[in-house]
């Protein structure tokens, strides 16, 4: 851990530890992986415009997300099957979230139970959902999430089915023995292990995800729960307006980390237009390609309320379990604080559009 000075250090160390097929599943995107590359390039082409002679002696990164105080405008993005990279899986990730004081968005396809995950953290836990054809199974999961203390639901809306991911097809990716979706009916997950051809994850999505849902279906989901419902996968101002009009509690600007529609717009490129359309009606989050504290600062300057961090969390988990995730999150927070200080914006309220070009 002493050699882990940046998120790229964790990435290299994780790759050295993981089997090739697992690494490709984590890192890969859809199609030619154009959008994976675009997410990163969109951050790199933006520059910061620092102000000087500002009192920066007391930087403050604290904020509130969905009413809960957090130590920084960061959260762990939903990613499936953490036990692919570490035996403790999401429980280790939850402990790190607790220590760092940051929300953990647990994937519907988590490999540890919601009860175990929420018991391991004092930080807010949100649950990500896909819309299953079996609404009874979806409603049951929502009820169990409420009982476990989950604070919000995040519906992924850019995946009526899983896109073609060539790395998974070439490697014939399947879940290894002992790694299951611990919170989903086992009968609904059978295809994820026994798909007849290509990627079992892709086969499962085509069997179990409901591709027929529309905006009108959101009323059913909101009616099944007292929890706030956010939508993840919004990339246009038009859809952002519809989301607000349909009563969602928040929006995540996201292209699924480049794992769904290839050639989709980079999330950070879509952010400012969506923020302007929403006009503060609901919080707006963003994910995709975040690897440095300056990336987070750029996203905040473009109007994001917080940034979700994905693959780097699994890199840290693979390297050193909860300690590794803590290292990733702490590094990113420290880099953000330094970027804010050096930009002359020591508090979140100091960050505005004039800071980035």
TrEMBL record:
SUPFAM superfamilies: FMN-linked oxidoreductases (SSF51395). Keywords: Flavoprotein, FMN, Oxidoreductase. Glyoxylate binds at residues 165, 256, 259. The active site is at 256 (proton acceptor). It comes from the Bacteria. Belongs to the FMN-dependent alpha-hydroxy acid dehydrogenase family. This is 4-hydroxymandelate oxidase.
């Amino acid at each position: 851990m002493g050699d882990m000075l940046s998120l790229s250090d964790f990435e290299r160390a994780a790759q050295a530890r993981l089997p090739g097929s697992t690494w490709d599943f984590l890192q890969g995107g859809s199609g030619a992986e154009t959008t994976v590359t675009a997410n990163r390039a969109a951050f790199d082409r933006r520059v910061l415009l620092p102000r000087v002679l500002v009192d920066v002696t007391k930087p403050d990164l604290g904020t509130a997300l969905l009413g809960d105080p957090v130590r920084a405008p960061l959260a762990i993005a939903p990613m499936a099957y953490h036990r692919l990279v570490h035996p403790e899986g999401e429980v280790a990730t939850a402990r790190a979230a607790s220590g760092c004081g940051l929300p953990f968005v647990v994937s519907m396809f988590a490999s540890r139970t919601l009860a175990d995950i929420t018991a391991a953290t004092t930080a807010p836990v949100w649950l990500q959902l896909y819309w299953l054809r079996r609404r009874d199974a979806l409603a049951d999961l929502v009820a169990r999430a409420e009982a476990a203390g989950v604070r919000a639901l995040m519906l992924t809306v850019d995946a009526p089915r899983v896109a073609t991911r060539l790395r998974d097809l070439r490697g014939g990716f399947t879940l290894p023995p002992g790694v299951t979706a611990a919170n989903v009916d086992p009968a609904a997950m059978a295809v994820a292990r026994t798909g007849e051809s290509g990627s079992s994850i892709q086969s499962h999505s085509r069997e179990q995800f409901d591709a027929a849902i529309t905006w009108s279906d959101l009323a059913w989901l909101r009616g099944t729960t007292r929890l706030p419902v956010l939508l993840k996968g919004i990339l246009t101002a038009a859809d952002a307006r519809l989301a607000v009009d349909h009563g969602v509690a928040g929006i995540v600007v996201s292209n699924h980390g480049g794992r769904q529609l290839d050639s989709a717009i980079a999330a950070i490129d879509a952010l400012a237009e969506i923020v302007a359309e929403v006009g503060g009606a609901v919080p707006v989050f963003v994910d995709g390609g975040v690897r440095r504290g300056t990336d987070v600062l750029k996203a905040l300057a473009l109007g994001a309320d917080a940034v979700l961090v994905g693959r780097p969390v699994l890199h840290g988990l693979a390297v050193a379990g909860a300690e590794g995730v803590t290292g990733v999150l702490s590094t990113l927070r420290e880099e953000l604080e330094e970027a804010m200080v050096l930009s002359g914006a020591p508090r979140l309220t100091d960050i505005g559009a004039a800071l980035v070009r």
